[in-house]
Amino acid sequence: LQVLAYNRHTYGTVAQRLVITIIPAPDGEPPYQGEFLVSNRNVEELLPASVQEMFLQAMAGVWEQDDLHVINITSVLDRGGRVPLPIEGLKEGVYVKVGSHGAFSPCLVSAASPQSRFRCSLGQQPLASCYDTFAPHFAIHWCNLTLLQVLPSPTVPGQVRGSGVLEEGGDFQPPTEATPQDLLPGYLVTLLVPLAVAALLCLLLGHLMCCRREGV
């Protein structure tokens, strides 16, 4: 990945090549995933590892699990959000997706329940039965909480492919035999129908020009 940046004041540019190595998780994708909206942070403020560790420590008090890790960090602007006003302390907001192999806590389940969604639609506080351990560092918008349980996809056995090289002395056998088709009816329809229409038009035009004249 090549990152190109420029200075807004001097318009100077600098390029840096960033090598990213993607390694699959040893335990696979976590089956329990939750996405939280942090309204008092920008996306670059949650990229440092120390800030993510502090966020996970606060998350452990709500989720009640120890194997939490950050899966994705997305700015609210990438989800259709508006650019914040140039006011001191006003942030754009960040979506943080966290995964775990442990089930959701009763607090998270109640906060994402239909009753809690209904209270949010009325402008009331959601049903969060636990103590908010994120405050005061992270302001969580609980009405935007999304809980997802990822089920493992069943493995479908694929087709066994050969080497692609025809063995010596063997004949190529097509996978399916083409059935013979009679193309004469289609050829006649394609040829005779336009000729019949053209002949009818000629007869109609001749009748109008020759037999409909005055005095005839």
Automatic annotation (TrEMBL):
- Per UniProt, what is one Pfam family of this protein? Sarcoglycan_2_C
Q: Which InterPro entries match?
A: Sarcoglycan_alpha/epsilon (IPR008908), Sarcoglycan_C (IPR048347)
Q: Residues of the signal sequence? A: none
Q: Where is the Sarcoglycan alpha/epsilon second domain?
A: 31-147
Membrane-crossing residue ranges in chain numbering:
184-206
Respond yes or no to whether keyword Membrane is given for this record: yes
Q: Which keywords, in A-to-Z order, does the entry hold? A: Membrane, Transmembrane, Transmembrane helix
**A Gene Ontology term for the protein's cellular component:** sarcoglycan complex
Among PANTHER family, the record links this protein to:
ALPHA-/EPSILON-SARCOGLYCAN FAMILY MEMBER (PTHR10132), ALPHA-SARCOGLYCAN (PTHR10132:SF16)
> Under which name does UniProt file this protein?
SGCE protein
Tell me the gene name.
Sgce_1
